[in-house]
Write a structure and sequence with these properties.
single chain; 322 residues; 2 helices; 12-stranded mixed sheet; Phosphorylase Kinase, domain 1
């Protein structure tokens, strides 16, 4: 019996470092993925699937002396383009003849789904390597992130074994169902990219186009007159901003962003005026939305997290007493 206990103890001592090494290797893969999406030149088409709908887009990403330049074109349905130069993002909506201009440091487009530093993700996700398989004609390494609590979803990420660029990403809900997937169909990495291909196809200089400047005054102290009574473990406030609710209205909307590095939650606070608002929950693809009134304000909380997470955060908000 004593010998058996000694063997078990030794076995545990041997298993722990192996698990630690495996975790460290998976974390290193995540860091490689994060760096690849920011530093590599690539162009390709990918398909986004959520529920019964799908959409195909083309992305072109160039890094040069001027920084990051990127163009995302939606190839299905109504034409849309998103052109990014570092933190400045322009969204072209040709059907409405509108271009929306924003400064969005938080902007993330597939395959750039990870934060610059992934070191803290292991605190809220169990991270491990999966199998090697083929995606878009390239060998890919699967890395699995399983949530350690019920506040967030799981993620499966497939990365090119050579460059580390994410080739496919899948979001898994609490019932182990796929609720969202991005996957490259065709991809060229580190090829020659003509800067002309990064220019928008649509001419917004004509009089018919309206330019909506959605740049907001950003400050983590924005909305300091609101109290968050519930703190979600792992979710830290990464942005706070104020912007005009409607052009010429004189009223402001406050917008907060909370993130654990992978999942993000947005909170919008706007004046309710004389309208009445009932509590409401609904989903748009993989995004859950929760709305409720708080005094004379309407709170809208949304994100790719379980609905219970949104309700927990939203129900814990109230105006500070003056």
């Amino acid at each position: 019996m004593k010998r058996a206990l000694v063997l078990l103890a030794l076995g545990g001592a041997l298993v722990a470092p192996a698990y630690s090494d495996q975790h460290g290797d998976a974390l290193a893969w995540l860091q490689k993925m994060a760096a690849a999406a920011q530093k590599l030149n690539y162009t390709g088409t990918f398909t986004y699937q959520s529920g019964g709908s799908s959409e195909t887009s083309r992305i072109t990403h160039l890094v040069d002396a001027a920084g990051e330049q990127e163009k995302l074109e939606v190839l299905d349905g109504s034409p849309r383009e998103v052109v990014r130069s570092n933190d400045e993002v322009k969204c072209f909506l040709p059907d409405d003849k509108v271009v929306i201009v924003e400064n969005r440091g938080q902007y993330k487009a597939f395959p750039a789904l990870l934060p610059a530093s992934v070191s803290n993700l292991g605190e809220y996700y169990q991270i491990r390597k999966g199998d090697v398989s083929r995606v878009a004609g390239l060998d890919s390494q699967l890395v699995i992130l399983e949530p350690r609590d019920a506040l967030r979803y799981g993620h499966h990420l497939w990365a090119d074994v050579n460059s580390g660029l994410i080739l496919k990403a899948r979001t898994i809900n609490e019932r182990n169902e796929t609720i969202e997937q991005f996957a490259f169909n065709q991809l060229q990495i580190n090829g020659i990219i003509d800067r002309e291909t990064l220019k928008p196809r649509f001419d917004s200089e004509g009089k018919a186009w309206r330019i909506h400047n959605a740049r907001a005054s950003q400050s983590l102290s924005a909305g300091s007159d609101w109290l968050f009574k519930v703190q979600l473990p792992g979710f830290k406030k990464s942005a706070g901003m104020k912007r005009q609710a409607r052009r010429g209205s004189g009223t402001e909307t406050t917008h907060f962003v909370f993130t654990d590095g992978l999942a993000s939650i947005s909170v919008f606070i706007e004046p309710l005026a004389d309208q009445k608002a009932e509590k409401a929950t609904y989903s748009v693809g993989a995004i859950n939305v929760y709305k409720r009134a708080a005094g004379k304000h309407l709170l809208t909380v949304l994100g790719e997290v379980p609905m219970a997470t949104l309700m927990r955060l939203g129900d814990g908000m109230e105006p500070r007493k003056k």
